[in-house]
């Protein structure tokens, strides 16, 4: 089920962006999430499903896990999105999800920045540098098995977690930590004289 524009209805949209073919994705928890939120929310997966972004094919085991996800009628695979269209797609979600077995190995900080640019709440696997992010901008849990229940609580309190104030904090963080601003900071340090 690959979909173009995300269907707008009363259901909450939980977005997962990434290389779904990665062996580091916690598929078991992703499947539990899909089943747990089924009555009230959709899980939208953005990213390649045939080969990973390095051009390598994935294992038959991952094919089976993708098939199990695809059997859930509240899971939709959006497919790959070009960088220039990413923000448009991500801004259609209510909650962003980062879910890895080994967070330090596979996450790039720009994924969090991409999510923060939308202003919307992020629920994540444990992040070793969580203290560097603004308070309540991202919820990172030490144990992935806690994520499905936490997600339900976020959905129940979505007005708070996506309040104008918290969205502003996330967006400001994304701007302050953009590549352009970081390059400018480096230039100022290098050419201070």
Task: Summarize the entry for a quick read.
The chain has helices at 27-37, 60-70, 86-90, 103-106, 109-118, 147-156, 158-161, 164-176, 179-190; strands at residues 12-17, 41-46, 75-79, 95-98, 121-125, 138-141.
Order of helices and strands: EHEHEHEHHEEHHHH
Strand content: 15-25%
Terminal Cα span: 57 Å
Q: Give the count of helical stretches.
A: 9
Alpha carbon gyration radius: 17 Å
Task: Give the biggest beta sheet.
Answer: 6 strands, parallel
Major sheet: arrangement of strands: 3-2-1-4-5-6
Helix and strand composition category: alpha/beta
What percent of the residues sit in helical stretches (DSSP H or I)? 40-55%
Description of the molecule:
- With 193 residues, the protein is α/β, with parallel strands linked by helices.
- It is built from 9 helices and 6 strands, in the order βαβαβαβααββαααα.
- A 6-stranded parallel β-sheet has the order 3-2-1-4-5-6, sandwiched between helices.
- The mean pLDDT is 84.
């Amino acid at each position: 089920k690959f979909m173009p524009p995300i269907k707008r209805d009363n259901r909450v949209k939980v977005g997962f962006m990434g290389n779904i073919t990665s062996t580091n994705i916690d598929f078991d928890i992703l499947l539990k999430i899909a089943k747990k939120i089924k009555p009230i929310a959709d899980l939208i997966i953005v990213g390649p499903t045939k080969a990973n972004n390095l051009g390598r094919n994935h294992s038959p085991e991952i094919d089976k896990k993708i098939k199990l996800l695809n059997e859930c009628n509240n899971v939709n695979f959006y497919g790959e999105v070009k960088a220039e269209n990413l923000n448009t797609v991500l801004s259609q979600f209510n909650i962003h999800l980062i879910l890895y077995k080994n967070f330090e190995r596979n996450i790039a900080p720009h994924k969090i920045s991409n999510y923060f640019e939308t202003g919307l709440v992020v629920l994540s696997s444990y992040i070793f540098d969580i203290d560097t992010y603004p308070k309540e901008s991202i919820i990172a849990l030490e144990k992935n098995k806690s994520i499905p229940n936490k997600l339900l609580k976020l959905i129940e309190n979505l007005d708070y977690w996506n309040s104008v104030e918290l969205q502003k904090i996330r967006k400001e963080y994304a701007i302050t930590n953009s590549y352009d601003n970081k390059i400018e900071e480096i230039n100022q340090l290098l050419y201070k004289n």
